[in-house]
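job 3f2a | input accepted
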Amino acid sequence: MLYLRNGYLIDPASNTEGYQDILIKGEKIAYILHRGTSVEAILTAEEERESLTVIDVQGQYIIPGLVDVHVHFRDPGFTHKEDIHTGARAAARGGFTSVVLMANTNPTVDNRQTLSYVLQKGMETGIHIHTCANVTKGMKGQELTDMEELSSLGAAGFTDDGIPLLDETLLRQALRRAAVLDRPVSLHEENPALIQNNGVNAGRAAEYFGIGGSPREAEISMVERDLKVAVTEEADLSIQHISTREAVELVRQAKRLSSHIYAEATPHHFTLTEDAVIRHGTLAKMNPPLREEEDRLAIIEGLRDGTIDMIATDHAPHSTEEKGRPFTEAPSGIIGLETALSLGIRELVKKGYLSMPELVRRMSCAPAGLYHLDAGYIAEGGPADLVVFDPDREWVVKEFASRAVNSPFVGETMPGVIGYTICAGRIVYQGNTSS
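job 3f2a | predicted structure (435 res):
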């Protein structure tokens, strides 16, 4: 048993905030106690008292285990970049106890064998591993997968993330089937016909590298089309890693017409602009690309007013060799699990855009709700998935639990030191807890 003492609990799911102690038995939270309550008084047996591990967290925050519904663990097929075990360690180090994997692996998650492989390997880690399955077979955008079978086998949702679904009729069919299954469909919104070079905004950064880049219209046109379809259907649809102010406004308008519209934003899109690509080169190359300051501020406003429901990292590991290639040849994407909470604290909370409970909501109960996960909340009888952290202590980004190191934030000093990540009642990560 674990007993967390003297912590400041924040649970946005119940709008609870204040000093509380937490007693964990097995995989569940047994009691939430008023600060100063004698835990020994509620332990009925001597062996219970002897097996108790007490952790005095000394006023640090206790929040629900974070939930990231957009990560790439590259397994199967690309395990030189990351695998499910190294990805899970990175998640735990970043405070994430539940993640949803994307399905653009090799082979893709469009069949029962690959889905079973991913879920079984996920069970060998210390955190909760879920995965989407593909919307279309082979991510070719031509034929829907057996969504019913994949859902029955444990697929948390459906996506062809990395390749947009261009066939509008196929999208509508997918949404209708997903509605019956009560599974979300999450969409990567970039029209390849409008893109000359992916990973960089068609603006100052593209001009700096002497290439065409990816114009904002590539995202705007797809978001506009897909929302027009989605507002007439009953399935939950999520716009992934939104990057333009126009797309934020389109989502805002669509939400007035339908309760089934969702959107996610990444820490890098609410932190950086295309200037970072000029500074960091391929380490800041990603799809969709970093845009302009007005876009960054629009994403923050979307998070503030609830237009954007959740923060998701789009954790996208690549090898050092791959990121060292010439700009147009290097793959897009950065890792994000281990820096996400700190960036949220630094860019959103400390700058006054969100309160700490609002940030926690967008990183826990909101994403868990979309994917129907038993996660993202703190309650007696609920899962013992918790994060203990000090929002004011600082750390320097210099090493990762991830197999990859492709981050533009290396060398930066950030707030938010995680002391413990607890998943299913077990400590899966323990940081430097000395002050």
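job 3f2a | The chain has two domains: 2-62+381-430, 65-370.
job 3f2a | closed
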